[in-house]
Amino acid sequence: MSTPAVLARQVHKNFGPNHVLRGIDLEVAPGQVQVIVGPSGSGKSTFLRCINHLERIDAGRLYVDGELVGYREVHGKLHELRPQEVARQRVRTGMVFQHFNLFSHMTVTQNIIEAPRHVRGLSKSDAVTLAHDLLAQVGLADKADAYPAELSGGQQQRVAIARALAMEPKLMLFDEPTSALDPELVGDVLAVMRSLAEGGMTMVVVTHEMGFARDVGDALVVMADGRVVEQGPPREVLANPSTERAAKFLARVN
Amino acid sequence: MTAPATQPAEEVEAIRAVPVRHPGRTVAGVVLLLLIVWVAITVAGNEQFDFGAIPEYLFDPVVLSGVRLTIVLTVVSMVLGLVVGVIAAIGRLSENPVLRWVAGAYIWLFRGTPVLVQLVFWFNIGIVFPTVGISVPFTDISLVSVESNSVVTPVNAAILGLGLNSGAYIAEIVRGGITSVGRGQVEAAAALGLDPRRTMRRIVLPQAIPVAVPPLGNEFVSMLKYSALASVIAVQELLGSVETIYSVNLRTLELLVVASIWYLALTTLFSGLQSLLERRLSRGRTGIVTVRSSRFSLSRLWRWSA
After folding, report:
1. Domain spans in chain B, listed from the N-terminal domain onward
2. Do A99 and B306 touch (CB under 8 A)?
3. Is residue A239 part of a domain?
4. Mutation target vs B (from A103, A107, A120; most B CBs, 10 A cutoff)
5. Mutation test of the interface with chain B: which of A102, A105, A128, choosing the one with the most B Cβ atoms within 10 A?
6. Assembly ipTM
7. In total, how many domains does chain A have?
8. Mind listing the pLDDT tens digit for each residue in B86-101?
9. Which residues cross the membrane (chain B) (predicted)?
10. CA nearest B254: which of B48, B44, B50?
11. Spatial separation of the C-alpha atoms in residues B74 and B90, rounded to whole Å
């Protein structure tokens, strides 16, 4: 069997006295779309942020593509990675945030080419060509020279997806990508994510969009109180949740 | 074809109402004007005040050299303050507790004591440290050593005092600018694989600078006026230069008016430049950027803020 894209073994995370993640075990196969749902405060966003080391885990092991995230293990002892090494690890993982986080002082094109030019070392013309291709892919070819403030939320989020894709990641993380959007703008973003999934991208998506989970997800994970309470094929989990905690949550959102 | 109006257009009579009278306003205005006229007549009629001295000394070579020194003092002190301030701001935001503490102590000390005290302190530093130089710490080995009085001239003491003092304020301004850039921007940069140094240079600072410019401009205008304190330690800047003149001819007020005219001219000039700069920067921040050409370095500077 091939190396899992993401492998979590008993991952724990504390924020001071708050025990936010209480032993997460999870596996995402390459090419799989894994959707994580759960009530707010369940730790799903925190877990997602741990995958690219925006949060440091306090116990357990977390691997991306077979490589330990944020640490190096020498003779059974963990050593923290240097900032440059962490940066290098993050290159293969793209992330899309709830609030887009586009660089507000840069145009759309500048947002997209910043990392490819300075991290991947692409020439400016190659990076710009790549940016225009990606913008066409997310349906925003005409916005190349706009500033983020001139775009709607849905457009900004699609630019953010294009920006992440410009690093040619093997794994894409989505942290509630549609939660900050007006309802009529959600569809465009979900459509881009759906076509990305159809193209074979490995994705971990934290969302409240049950329709997306059902139609696009290969696996659905329900989290509550820092634990995975249920996981399986989305239709099965949604139709017949086997645990009471998952059933209670799904009954409320469906 | 336009559809006919349902009702024929009718001439509507414009309202010609009697406006509310404000007798209080009229009275206050008249009283104030009379007061101003009275003050003007009193001043103009005062034979002790020599109006002719103002144009006579406005472009006096001594006064002009004072103006020059005031500008030099302000600009050099401001540059020193900016360098020290940026370093202190980064120290305050550092993860190294010693750096954080030292930067905090510097800001506490220099913001908490009067500038005048600091100026006089640096001016007299030669009393306790007769020589300054470079030596190996914790030993008596001296590599370079010069007499304090030859290095700490009044002008240098003034630059040191004004610069270190304003550095403490600038540190807080710069820190405010940096912390105003949302955490999301830094996280987005991190998620793209940018390292912390590049993130600071390419993502954080270009957004922090537009935030810091208005208070930095105020700091500059303040510095212009605070530089007058240097006259206390025998620096012949603008105030010092008019003092030397009026200590001889005793036209104290006339010469203080001369100095004030110059201070007003300088602060007005710099305030104008500041609001010009701010307008350009704020225009960028709302996203309505008119200067988009990347050919000119100046326009690139403006685009930072977009």
Report:
1. 52-276
2. no
3. no
4. A103
5. A105
6. 0.91
7. 1
8. 999 989 998 899 999 9
9. 26-45, 65-89, 101-123, 255-277
10. B50
11. 24
